[in-house]
Amino acid sequence: MATIIESYNGIRNNINKTEVSPMNSKFKIPNQNIMPVALADCEHTKYQRPTSPSQVDKIIEKFTEAKLGVLTVSQRNGKYHIIDGLHRSAVLKALGYTHAYCDVLTGMTYEQEAEFFRKQNEDKRIITTFDDFKAGLEAKNELCIKINEIAGANGFQIGKGKSFYKIESIKALSTIVKDYGYGVLDDTLCLLANTWADISRASQYDSLLGVAEFVSRYGMASFSERLKDKFSVIIYDYSEAMRVTGSIGSTTSRKKFCKALVMHYNKGLRSNQRAYLNWEG
Questions:
Q1: How much is the pTM?
Q2: The pLDDT value given to residue 122
Q3: Is residue 20 part of a domain?
Q4: How many domains does the chain have?
Q5: 139-194 per-position pLDDT tens digit
Q6: 197-203 long-range contacts, CB within 8 A, separation 24+
């Protein structure tokens, strides 16, 4: 295994030291230097969050050096105290790395490190699912491109908004593809557009997953014809079922939504009729 992570692009060893603006009136960081540091010399600090073994395992499972960035450490008393990158350092150690590129800060007290950690995490902005999806389109990611194409072919746009034709729940779309395939996603959006167009609630998370569950079980047979004017009673029955048990977005919730669809689909049909749908939870 490599002793230094050499594939970090754009990082130069021993860059010039630069003055950093003060975090607050109490102190400033005199020097900052990007350099390789031995992981054995990096220490956990009390102000850091505890390392989560499950999170470390998740990172290892999808490990790529391009996503690691650099660790942020404070050089103090001959050691490098990790301010940002605790899980990443644990991953590197688990994978056999001995060194990592670090943004090394010097001249800080322990209290200043803790304040830096607090401020740094306070100001972090989490990447949203929508931001990630947009980046996936630009990166020519196959999943993102195909989801976008299927949505567009059925008259939908992926984006923020409260209208029926604006789908915010990218997670639902990707879950449908993962669990049922692209064909079911296409059929689901087609059914929604033909059945409940302009009902904004009909293109949200639970409805998308519930209709996809229906399609995966029964296909598209007479869906629009039998359920066109029934969304309000379907969502009411589903909500009542979820109030008793389950959680929105879970496998249980999509089955409960599907069950409500089946119940109202069967209204007016006898159990011995060919069109009647048998429900198996």
A1: 0.62
A2: 63
A3: no
A4: 2
A5: 788 999 999 999 999 999 998 887 999 999 999 999 999 999 999 999 999 999 99
A6: 197/164, 197/165, 198/164, 199/164, 199/231, 200/162, 200/163, 200/164, 201/231, 201/235, 202/164, 202/231, 203/156, 203/164, 203/165, 203/166, 203/167
